[in-house]
TrEMBL record:
The lineage of its organism: Bacteria, Pseudomonadati, Bacteroidota, Cytophagia, Cytophagales. Residues 37-175 form the Thioredoxin domain. Pfam families: Redoxin (PF08534). GO terms for molecular function: isomerase activity; oxidoreductase activity. It is found in: Cell envelope. It comes from Dyadobacter jejuensis. It comes from the Bacteria. The chain crosses the membrane at residues 7-24. InterPro entries: Redoxin, Thioredoxin-like_sf, Thioredoxin_CS, Thioredoxin_domain, Thioredoxin_ResA/DsbE_sf. This is Thiol-disulfide isomerase/thioredoxin. Keywords: Cytochrome c-type biogenesis, Isomerase, Membrane, Redox-active center, Transmembrane, Transmembrane helix. GO terms for cellular component: cell envelope.
Length: 177
């Protein structure tokens, strides 16, 4: 009987370890072409009811190429990819054809100290309410690049967003605007 309990315990630990591994593994592919296939969502790929960290309602700019990242301060993979997002933002922040939205469900009292401590200069927002079906998910980080209402790239899990393939995709899409 004692031996059977040990076997059951070992199996449970292995199952739990596997579940944790796959929950946090993310997608570490390095080629933008490896993103999930584009999804045409002409009216459901934008957020409404978004607020900046001062509480002002901010509409998502639908006439621009949109980089949308959903994250949380407590999320390790979210924090791992944030420097790459900062680098990508630094390259395109002055381009009037590109808009960045770094969105959390957390309130400003949680996000502001985090941003200040880390020194990020990104456009952070709070979103309250259900996400449109095209942007809904139960995992973070999740990131979407949206062009003319179509999700042209999406990824769940941490990624390196300042790599050449991402820059190439952005350049191709803003040339069409």
């Amino acid at each position: 009987m004692q031996g059977m309990k040990k076997i059951v315990l070992v199996v449970m630990v292995l199952v739990l370890a596997g579940a944790i591994y796959f929950a946090f593994k993310g997608n570490d592919d390095t080629d933008v072409a490896q993103f999930e296939a584009p999804i045409t969502q002409p009216t459901g790929s934008y957020l409404t009811g978004m607020r900046d960290l001062q509480g002002k309602v901010v509409p998502m700019e639908e006439d621009k190429l949109v980089f949308l990242n959903v994250w949380a301060t407590w999320c390790g993979p979210c924090n791992m990819e944030m420097p790459g997002i900062q680098s990508l933002y630094d390259k395109y922040k002055d381009n009037d054809k590109v808009a960045f939205y770094i969105v959390s469900d957390e309130d400003a009292a949680t996000v502001n100290p985090f941003v200040e401590r880390k020194g990020y200069q990104l456009p952070f927002y709070q979103y309250v309410g259900p996400y449109p079906s095209a942007l809904d998910g139960n995992a973070i980080p999740r990131t979407y690049i949206i062009h003319k209402g179509e999700i042209v790239a999406q990824e769940v899990g941490a990624s390196q967003w300042d790599r050449p393939e991402v820059h190439q995709l952005i350049e191709e899409k803003i040339a069409e605007i």
